[in-house]
């Protein structure tokens, strides 16, 4: 056991705030030495205080501590936000939810379930963005998936609360709704020129990187005793599948339809590989950026292609459009229709419906058969869901779909090494073939490594680590199209193998 918990701690079983505090201590005790974390935190605080004191001493116009406005601290607190909600208001909302859950009076419907997962999702996403080290390796995703799993393992949630979240996630099937909005909305919302030209430009690097990642992962997996079947479908595929929302979740549904177990079994097995792969991709991006500084001839400083004309194509941005809620409603209806069509074709071709939904959306976007207004509406749904429901959804997944004992069981030195070999092979392939494709090696390697990140969140983290946010259009191609292609190919291959 990594942790020991005294029995008297269970007296706080109904208190969300105590549960969150205990979980954070346990989490860092397991995954990052607590003393090092405290040392970094104290050093950071000391540095901030020392800098502030120096500024106040050097600038006589600044008021001293004694003459500072009394309301300064309160104003600072009022300026903080948790998931777009002002901090003080969020504390009040969280208290209401906690008291209701403690008393067993939480509404057992979608409203009660959303209140629980949104409160925890906003809180842990905020914490994940603030904690040192963790904020640079996908902290919000890690906390929102793993902390609820730890809380459930130690019995920190009331049975009534668990039943309410179960109703929302499994009976009302919020999971399918979010998947459909993320996948269809993101594909239909892409610039068609970028979609077509990007697929042409990125085809060779993505294919070469994917092949090298698969070969490297299989070889290293065999060295550590993993079967090719397990290495490919449960380590390599989730890493290059496009993240949690667009990769792991559709894969879990497809695996469930083919292999017969419930999706939660596969989420617990697939998610750790995606998280570890994302960490390696961020590290690779930072190393590549350093290489670019030392050898300027290898980098375009944010430009992928050695041609200004070609780069202008990918710097085109769609004009900002005000959200039209009627169009958003039409886009939501169309997303539902795509999901239903995928289910209908599943009966004919025996390929899981969510996978067919992805393929149909790509074909419709390419053929321009969907009116631009409906594409805008679907993309508005995507933006709303990705901004407001992704972290809460991960809370629900952590509570119901990610058993802690299953996650801990898959981790080993060999597991981490296999994940690292997949990402490193992906980045190296892009680096070495770039010169043959009139691309800069550093940028090509960074974009290719985005194929192994945690979706859009991973793209931001990887490009931020390398200070190359201008590569986002190419990163989106690698993540969305590369991830969707991986999901489809893996599903077809699994159905054939089984």
Structure description:
InterPro entries: 2-OHcarboxylate_transport (IPR004679). With 498 residues, the protein is mostly helical. The chain folds into two domains: 11-171, no CATH class; 174-309 and 323-497, no CATH class. The protein is 74% helix and 1% strand. It has helices at residues 16-31, 34-58, 72-79, 87-102, 110-130, 139-153, 159-171, 174-188, 192-223, 228-239, 244-259, 263-294, 308-314, 325-349, 353-367, 372-388, 390-400, 404-410, 413-433, 441-449, 455-466, 472-497, and strands at 81-82, 85-86. Strands 1-2 form a two-stranded antiparallel ribbon. Strand 1 (81-82) and strand 2 (85-86) form a beta hairpin. Helix 7 (159-171) crosses helix 17, helix 8 (174-188) crosses helix 11 and helix 11 (244-259) packs parallel to helix 22 (472-497). The chain is globular. The relative contact order is 0.14. The model is unreliable at 1-42 and 59-70 (pLDDT under 50).
């Amino acid at each position: 056991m990594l942790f020991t918990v005294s029995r008297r701690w269970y007296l706080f079983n109904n208190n969300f705030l105590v549960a969150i505090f205990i979980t954070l201590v346990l989490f860092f005790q397991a995954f990052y030495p607590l003393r090092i974390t405290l040392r970094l935190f104290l050093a950071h605080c000391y540095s901030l205080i020392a800098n502030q004191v120096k500024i106040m001493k050097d600038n006589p116009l600044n008021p001293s501590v004694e003459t500072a406005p009394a309301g300064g601290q309160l104003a600072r607190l009022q300026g903080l936000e948790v998931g777009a909600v002002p901090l003080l208001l969020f504390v009040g909302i969280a208290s209401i939810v906690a008291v209701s859950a403690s008393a067993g009076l939480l509404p057992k419907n979608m409203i009660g379930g959303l209140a629980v997962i949104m409160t925890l999702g906003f809180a842990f996403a905020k914490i994940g963005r603030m904690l040192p080290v963790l904020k640079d390796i996908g902290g919000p995703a890690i906390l929102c998936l793993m902390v609820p799993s730890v809380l459930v393992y130690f019995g920190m949630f009331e049975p009534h609360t668990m039943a309410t979240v179960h109703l929302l996630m499994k009976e009302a099937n919020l999971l399918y709704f979010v998947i459909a909005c993320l996948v269809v909305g993101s594909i239909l919302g892409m610039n068609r020129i970028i979609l077509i030209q990007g697929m042409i430009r990125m085809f060779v690097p993505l294919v070469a990187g994917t092949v090298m990642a698969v070969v490297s992962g299989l070889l290293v997996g065999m060295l550590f005793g993993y079967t090719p079947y397990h290495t490919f479908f449960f380590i390599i595929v989730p890493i290059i599948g496009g993240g949690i929302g667009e990769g792991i979740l559709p894969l879990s549904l497809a695996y469930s339809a083919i292999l017969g177990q419930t999706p939660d079994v596969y989420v617990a097995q697939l998610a750790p590989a995606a998280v570890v792969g994302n960490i390696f991709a961020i590290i690779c991006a930072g190393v590549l950026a350093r290489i670019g500084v030392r050898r300027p001839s290898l980098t375009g400083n944010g430009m992928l292609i050695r041609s200004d004309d070609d780069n202008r194509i990918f710097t085109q941005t769609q004009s900002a459009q005000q959200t039209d809620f009627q169009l958003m409603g039409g886009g939501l209806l169309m997303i539902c229709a795509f999901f239903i069509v995928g289910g209908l074709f599943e009966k004919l071709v025996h390929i899981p419906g969510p996978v067919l939904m992805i393929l149909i959306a790509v074909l419709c976007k390419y053929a321009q058969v969907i009116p631009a207004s409906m594409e805008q509406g679907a993309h508005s749904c995507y933006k709303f869901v990705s901004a407001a429901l992704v972290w809460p959804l991960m809370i629900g997944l952590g509570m119901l779909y990610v058993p802690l004992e299953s996650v801990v069981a898959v981790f080993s030195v060999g597991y981490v090494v296999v994940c690292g070999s997949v990402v490193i092979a992906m980045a190296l392939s892009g680096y070495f073939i770039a010169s043959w494709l009139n691309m800069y090696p550093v940028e090509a390697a960074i974009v290719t490594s985005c194929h192994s990140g945690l979706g859009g969140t991973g793209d931001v983290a990887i490009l931020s680590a390398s200070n190359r946010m201008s590569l986002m259009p190419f990163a989106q191609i690698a993540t969305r199209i590369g991830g969707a292609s991986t999901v489809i190919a893996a599903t077809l291959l699994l159905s054939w193998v089984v």
